[in-house]
Write a structure and sequence with these properties.
Helix content: 40-55%
Order of helices and strands: EHEHEHEHEHEHEHHEHHEHHEHEHEHEHH
Bound molecules: uridine-diphosphate-N-acetylglucosamine
CATH superfamily of the largest domain: Glycogen Phosphorylase B
Largest sheet: 7 strands, parallel
Strand content: 5-15%
Radius of gyration: 20 Å
Number of strands: 13
Structural class: alpha/beta
CATH architecture of the largest domain: 3-Layer(aba) Sandwich
Distance between the termini: 11 Å
CATH class of the largest domain: Alpha Beta
């Protein structure tokens, strides 16, 4: 039996929990060998190495060391660096995950080298082309050979774009495999207790989208909202480096601290999920946290005008919010003990997505 080498691309914080379950499933299979490639898009220990260690992926096989930069710079540098690795160590398969700049860069590079390329978390669409991630999603799905989708809405989006059905396999939500893989450690971490936050008496905030944090006026509005929300429910806010820089530049970090919010450095995976698991509600502009809160049945208010994950609204606990209505929405969620419905878990959000990915690769290898 020949062993198939699979390049797995990890780049930024939200990628690691999508890559890890597949890496472990491939490593356990006799007929595949995972090769982990870290582009270095995220590089701070608490945005990268600590999370990889939490997920049992301490040592990438290749580290491209790209770092920050403009979109063009980051994308171009990843294309050049991955092109060299892929040419010198040609894999049988390339798997890219999510929607960050490195996802698109490696997909284009791999496909042009004739490497069978798979996009994991394909088919999601917000229809907001002002978000860089939407461009990355559309372009990655257009070039990748095989599209692994998390949910039926993604299948429908791809069919509407004319993608032939034989290129698409619904595998489910791989991020939740990481949660199930690490559930015992997450439950043991007891982060809320260590912060003195007990009995679901707190909420968690995350914000990092350029549209929310790059404009000081918008960021100021959100800071005022957070101060008001904090009066309803004490808030813990692990601050993304982009957001920390913008808050500091505008002097808004002092306003948040004066309002009493608990500001933390970004947390590694296990500690962050421990914090979220114990929360009464979450306010965020993240993609993945919309899904994790749906899975956990925790009310989530998403400070964005659109979501590429509508299933978290239709079947889950997510609601889109604006600075104008977020305080009322939080009050309503707290009053109803949730958003008023029992949480539901979409099909294949079951911790077994990596198994289905390996099976699909095997089926397509024959
Ligand atoms: C990127 C992704 C976004 C994802 C987010 C999760 C793209 C287009 N964006 O956005 O989809 O939701 O990651 O975090 O790929 N920085 C550090 N240390 C780090 C990484 C970043 O200080 O380890 C700072 C730098 O100042 C950098 C800024 O954060 O310029 C933004 O980083 P970048 O990777 O460009 O985008 P994110 O905002 O993190």
């Amino acid at each position: 039996m020949s062993v198939q080498n699979v390049h797995l691309i990890a780049a930024a914080r939200p990628n690691f929990m999508k890559v890890a379950p597949l890496w472990h499933a491939l490593a356990a299979a006799a007929d595949f060998r995972p090769v982990l490639i870290h582009t270095g898009q995220h590089y701070d220990a608490n945005m990268s190495a600590d999370i990889l260690a939490d997920l049992g992926l301490s040592e990438p096989d290749f580290h491209l060391g790209i770092g920050s930069g403009s979109h063009a710079e980051q994308t171009g540098k990843v294309m050049i660096a991955y092109g060299e690795v892929a040419s010198a160590h040609r894999p049988d398969w390339l798997v890219v995950v999510g929607d960050v700049n490195s996802t698109l860069a490696c997909a284009i590079t791999g496909v042009k080298l004739g490497i069978p390329t798979v996009h994991l978390e394909a088919g999601l669409r917000s229809r907001d082309r002002s978000m860089p991630e939407e461009i990355n999603r559309i372009a990655t799905d257009a070039v990748a050979d095989i599209l692994w989708t998390p949910s039926p809405d993604a299948d429908t989006n791809l069919a509407a774009e004319g993608v032939p059905a034989d290129r698409v396999t619904r595998v489910g939500n791989i991020m939740l495999d990481s949660f199930e893989m690490k559930r015992p450690a997450i439950e043991a971490a007891a982060v809320p207790q260590s912060l003195g936050c007990n009995g679901r008496g707190y909420g968690v905030v995350t914000l990092h989208r350029p549209v929310n944090v790059d404009d000081p006026a918008q960021l100021g509005r959100l800071v005022d909202c957070l101060a008001e929300l904090h009066a309803e429910l004490p808030l813990v806010f692990p601050v993304h480096p982009r957001t920390a820089a913008r808050l500091e530049a505008a002097g808004l970090d002092r306003r948040l601290a004066a309002a009493g919010l608990r500001l933390l450095e970004p947390l590694p995976y296990i500690r962050f999920m421990s914090l979220v698991s114990g929360a009464r509600a979450v306010v965020t502009d993240s993609g993945g946290i919309q899904e994790e809160t749906t899975y956990l049945g925790i009310p989530c208010l998403t400070l964005r005008e659109s979501t590429e994950r509508p299933i978290t609204i239709q079947q889950g606990t997510n609601r889109l919010a604006t600075p104008d209505d977020v305080v009322d929405l939080l009050r309503a969620a707290l009053a109803s003990g949730g958003h008023g419905e029992a949480p539901a878990r979409p099909e294949y959000w079951d911790g077994r997505t990596a198994e289905r990915c390996v099976e699909d690769l095997r089926r397509r290898t024959r």
